[in-house]
């Protein structure tokens, strides 16, 4: 279960990603505007790292960007730092490209290999209650043996594209009812 704080972020996630995308060797498009399409979350079993993956429309294409949020820098991951943001409740957050973060890799591997799905999200109200937030994306792992070969994030998910014949994470979102491959193990 993910607890979402009512907070302001500076810069916003979309602004942070739009600035970071052009610096990536795999990115080949304009990134002046990254329009959010949907997002899903996984849980860090230790409760220390936020794990959230985003689907953005950039230049008419979908871009899949898994992120992790940390309260301190991740040792040895300077090249994978997307940037920092100020969270009005949690303070400074160091934001990393998910595939470079061992917490993301472990949780994605677990979700895919166990056939699990995104976590439920709860928003804290000003009164201290929690209200469930409806997901903007639904993802599910296929189940299967991870085979110790790492994770592959599908950066440019394409509806109708063939999913790899491996343990895979697929997702759906508003307007996309057929599952689309987002990541796989192997």
From TrEMBL:
Keyword Repeat listed: no
Keyword line: ATP-binding, Kinase, Nucleotide-binding, Transferase
InterPro entries named in the record: Mak_N_cap
An MF annotation (GO) of this entry: ATP binding
Keyword set includes Lyase: no
Limits of the Maltokinase N-terminal cap domain: 20-101
A Pfam entry, by short name: Mak_N_cap
Protein known as: Maltokinase N-terminal cap domain-containing protein
Organism: Cellulomonas pakistanensis
